[in-house]
Write a structure and sequence with these properties.
The protein is of the alpha/beta class and 309 residues long. It folds into two domains: 174 residues, Rossmann fold (3-Layer(aba) Sandwich); 125 residues, Dynein light chain 2a, cytoplasmic (Beta-Lactamase, 2-Layer Sandwich). The chain is built from ten helices and eleven strands. It has a six-stranded mixed β-sheet with strand order 2-3-1-4-5-6, sandwiched between helices. α8 runs antiparallel to α10. The chain is globular, with a radius of gyration of 20 Å. The relative contact order is 0.11. Bound molecules: guanosine-5'-triphosphate and magnesium ion. The site of guanosine-5'-triphosphate has 21 residues, from α1 and α2.
């Protein structure tokens, strides 16, 4: 097995780093836990696995005393980092400058050591009710441009997240971890092609932890369906969490129909790993979908097998 992927999760205190990792781990019923979170003392480690590779998240407490400690012992904390996940509280304008400064200090270390690592910036606390605030959206654009301008040599991906939107959290981590294998390209092509062939509204491949490995959505989703789509994906995340916890070995495929929409969750076992395909489509496309599905499944399995080798 290859070395574990080291992910540094950094940002100022109160940005929401531990909340993000908690939400990722739990998917459901994490609200109470998040309300009770205390500031992280130094570093906490959280492990997850992704396509047979282990990822270790270093949740770096963001209080000033810790930040100083990390920067003055940078080799201890930042060496051998594979991915930086930097979290900014988008609702806390007063701390933007301090957060940008801290980000610069960390990135300077990577530059100095020729570490050309991917970086993901999460503009966090982008809660459903603030999404329409012009000021917040302008701040995001401004921060994005400023960061890109100052660090042109880094591959930086930006993502808005909120713990009130668990899918945004799952996506954040998926994008980050999927950078590590080129076979993803082949997988993406198959998923995109099949979405079209099946006339699906959404087609998503999850790993057993509910991390999205690949996802495609049809372009013309009407708002009524969109709400249902999000509910169906959440339901699927919930189901696979339960499958994990309760060890349902035998019944891993779920088909439900509501509002003329079919939501389908299909479990796949490969080696010691489990994966799930989640599909949402209109009921009138159900028969051709179920006919074509086995062939698609075979192709997905081939790619996953290759990915896991
Ligand atoms: N509105 C909103 N609040 C959030 C969100 N995520 C986290 N919070 C709140 O932000 C506060 C800080 O969250 P933490 O996850 O402890 O922050 P942290 O970045 O780990 O802080 P340190 O460990 O001190 O570095 C908590 O009160 C959370 O409930 C979010 O998406 N939206
Ligand atoms: Mg914390």
């Amino acid at each position: 097995m290859e070395d574990a992927i080291k992910v540094i999760v950094s940002g100022l205190h109160n940005a929401g780093k531990t909340s993000i990792l908690t939400a990722l781990d739990k998917k459901y019923d994490f609200r109470d836990e998040i309300l009770e979170l205390k500031p992280t003392i130094r570093v906490e480690y959280k492990k997850t696995s992704f396509l047979g590779r282990e990822a270790i998240f270093w949740d770096m407490g963001g209080q000033e005393k810790y930040r100083e400690m990390y920067l003055s012992n940078a080799d201890i904390y930042f060496s051998e980092t594979d991915l930086l996940l930097y979290v900014m509280d988008i609702q806390d304008q007063e701390k933007f400058q301090a957060s940008l400064d801290y980000f610069d200090s960390i990135v300077s270390y990577f530059k100095k050591n020729d570490m050309d690592i991917p970086i993901i910036i999460s503009f966090h606390k982008y809660d459903p009710e603030v999404r329409t605030y012009e000021e917040i959206n302008e701040d995001i654009l401004y921060l994005r441009e400023k960061i890109k301008e100052e660090h042109p040599s880094f591959n930086i991906l930006f993502q808005q997240t909120s713990i009130y939107d668990v899918i945004s959290i799952v996506q954040l981590i998926s994008y980050g971890l999927s950078i590590f294998d080129e076979k993803f390209f082949e997988l993406s092509l198959l998923m995109e092609k099949s979405l079209g062939e099946f006339n699906c509204t959404s087609l998503i491949l999850f790993d057993k932890n509910g991390i999205i490995i690949s996802e495609f959505y049809s372009e013309d989703i009407d708002p009524g369906i969109y709400v249902y789509l999000l509910e169906a994906i959440k339901e699927h995340l919930f189901l696979l969490k339960r499958i994990q916890e309760e060890n349902y070995e035998h019944n891993k495929n779920f088909l439900t129909i509501e509002n003329e929409l079919v939501s389908y969750l299909h479990g796949i076992d490969i080696h010691d790993e489990s994966f799930f395909i989640s599909a949402l489509l209109q009921e009138r496309f159900k028969e051709p979908f179920l006919t074509q599905f086995p062939e698609f499944l075979g192709e997905i399995k081939d790619i996953l097998n290759a990915l896991l080798e």
